[in-house]
Structures are given as C-alpha cells and as structure tokens.
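Sorry to interrupt, but I need a hand with the structure work. Could you add the entry underneath, on a fresh line?
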Amino acid sequence: MAFEKITEKSSLYDNLDQMSPSEIVKCMNQEDRKPAEAVEKALPQISELVERLVPRMKEGGRLFYIGAGTSGRLGVLDASEIPPTFGMPATTVIGLIAGGDTALRNPVEGAEDDTEQGWKDLLAHNINDKDTLVGIAASGTTPYVIGALREARKNGVLTASIACNPDSPMAQEAEIAIEIMVGPEFVTGSSRMKAGTAQKMTLNMISTAAMIGLGRVKGNRMINMQLSNAKLVDRGTRMIVDSLGIPYDQAQQLLLLHGSVAEVMKKFPKE
C-alpha cells in the first residue's frame, strides 16, 4: 500500500460552524466508533510487539515511547500511569516528547522537525539493546520520531511504530509497524481526535498486556498498585478480604504493614 496522508484528508462533514451543539456531538460520536474497529485490524501487530517486549523486560529492558504533540503527550501519559497502577519503578516505562516536558503544556516551536534530537534524548537515558522503542505519530512523518527509530534500530533496540496512515516513512524505520487507519478527522487534520483515541487504545493494550506478562496482575486485579490514596487502600483491603477471608480491619492492617496486596499474598498464601 502506497503512503497516503489520510489524516490530512478533508472531513466527511462540512459547515461545522453552522451545526447546533447536538448535531456536532452526534456526528463526533458517529466518528468515534471507528477507532476501535481500526485498532482491531492491527491486533496481530500489537500482539507481536507484546510477545517480543515482555521477555526483554524480564531481562531488565525498558519500554520507551517517543512522539511529538498529542502523540508525545499520550506516550508520556501512558508511561506515567505505570508506577501507580502496577507498582513498577518510573524508569521501567519512559515517555519522551519533542521539546521536553515544557511541550506537555505549551508547543515548542520546531522541536518535532529535528531529526537528531530524538536519539539524543534517548541517549540521555542510556538506551541499550535490551530496550524497546515505540514511535508514535499519527501522520507517520514526524522527523523527531523517525530519526530516533532509525538510530535505535541500528543499535539493536527493538522498534515499533504507531501511525494512522498506511506505509508511512516512520513505519519503514520500525521492525513492527502498527497502522491504525481511522479515516479523516471530524475537524480536518485534527489528529488529537480519532487518531489520538486510537493511539491511546493501542498504548493501553501494549502497557497493560506487558504488565500482565510481568506478573503485576493476579486474576483480574492490580496487586502491586501504589497505595497513594484512601480509595486505593480500600480497594487493596477488599482484595485481601476476598482472598484470605479475614475481617476488613485486619486486612487493612496487613496491607498497610506490608505495603501492597502482592506482599500480603506472599506472606499469607491462600491455602
């Protein structure tokens, strides 16, 4: 399939400025049904990535996300949720965005157009051949990401890409090309919409499946979550109550003493 910038094609809707709010949200809702279907078509590639990623992480490898704009922010978001959700160190999954943390809130002019900076940012984290790099760019043409993938692959890093255009330049640089075609955006070219939704869904799958593969989930529960607020302490306490069949107060004491559901389960295995 030849490279085609579907993400820049004209919206299937026109005269948006003349629509009522109810018409706008109805049309957007119709379009928002498409990302899940598009992601479904890429499940084989997503699965392949996870299957190759988990053994590398078991050997001490890390997962890096790299992107610019919305794509970069989504990578940083997914990475930042790993420590509280699964109790992993913040250095296990790392999100990098063109322009650095400043770009999370404010655009940094020209940052995504620098072909060399992405690899420089990765070198600052001592990236090595045990690690995995996922490049994220809806267009598949972001120089910051393409350059990083190219150099990472040369240095033995497992590389993957997530794009919303077919056969993109970015995909050519990755070992595993995840292509999620969601079609033209409701607002022409606004890839923060369907493309962003599809990217977030894909990142959810990658990180969650990887954490399950690393043993951070028992049954269907997050047994290593950080106890950072009362809600999570209550959730962890109820997990222990259900597992050990002990009173709530006793379960909470054990949880707070040992620091996580997983540690309690190790100390008091269910007979």
Summary: Strands lie at 63-67, 93-97, 132-136, 158-163, 176-179.
